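Milestone 3.1: sequence recovery, worked example.
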């Protein structure tokens, strides 16, 4: 009878150890799932920031192109004005 009691106690202690290990692993799993959720949220925020930065860079490049285009156009207008002035001066000189 005492052997059966010893076996029962041994079995009970092993079951209790397994239950404790299960609970610990469940807590670890819950912590990891929480960490995954946080990282997924951070990833979504980072992706949103990337899109905003990409759009801002596009707008910045477009505004730089616009500024460059305006400058080139101003130079061309200046050149045309100089040509007109030269032609007008030549016309007056011929008369």
């Amino acid at each position: 009878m005492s052997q059966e009691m010893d076996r029962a106690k041994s079995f009970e202690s092993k079951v209790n150890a397994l239950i404790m290990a299960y609970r610990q692993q469940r807590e670890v799993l819950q912590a990891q799932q929480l960490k995954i959720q946080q990282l997924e949220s951070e990833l979504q925020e980072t992706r949103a920031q990337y899109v905003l930065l990409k759009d801002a860079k596009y707008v910045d490049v477009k505004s730089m192109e616009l500024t460059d285009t305006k400058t080139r156009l101003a130079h061309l207008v200046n050149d045309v004005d100089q040509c007109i002035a030269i032609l007008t001066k030549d016309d007056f000189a011929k008369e």
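The radius of gyration is 40 Å. The mean pLDDT is 87.
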